[in-house]
Amino acid sequence: MMTAIAKRALAGLVLAGLSVSGVGQAEEAASMSLLEDALGATWPGMVEGATVVDWQGEVLQEGDNGYTCMPTPPSMSGRAPMCLDEAWMAWAQAWQNREPFTAERLGIAYMLAGDEGASNLDPYAEGPTEDNQWVVEGPHLMIIGPPALLEAFPADPDNGGPYLMWKGTDYQHLMVPVDARP
Known about the structure:
Blueprint: H1 5-18, H2 22-39, H3 44-47, E1 51-53, E2 59-61, E3 68-70, E4 82-84, H4 86-96, E5 107-111, E6 118-119, E7 134-135, E8 140-144, H5 147-150, E9 163-165, E10 173-177
Parallel strand pairs: 1-3
Antiparallel strand pairs: 1-2, 3-4, 4-5, 5-8, 6-7, 8-10, 9-10
Helix pairs in contact: 1-2
């Protein structure tokens, strides 16, 4: 999903060729904007060591701390960058491909810039409806783990603390707000 060494090499050659003109500077500025957006998902101490990729898999920053950060998806109008550890990357691949997933260990993801919203009930909802409990969350962490570890948490996003999103699905995860909702 995120491996694109050939794309990165080709993009580097293209950027090198374009840098003679103003187009190369525009591309570089766009990459920096994506990089800054992606790193806005995490805390300052993680910024330097995180790998950052865009949504085509192009590596914008190499890292070594086990986290992969991505900018806001291009389909969204607001902000929703995220930084995922290895367990979350496996979760994301399963979710994206609609494959079964069971977390075998704890995983942590950061979305400290908040998000544009998601259904608390349906992992594939694309917008709010009367019955899908749409939640626009402020800065938060997300935790996955073996289902037995998460079952005791409430699924109510308005309970004033952590809540289980997508409860009962292969993609359930604990949402941990760290600041108020927008």
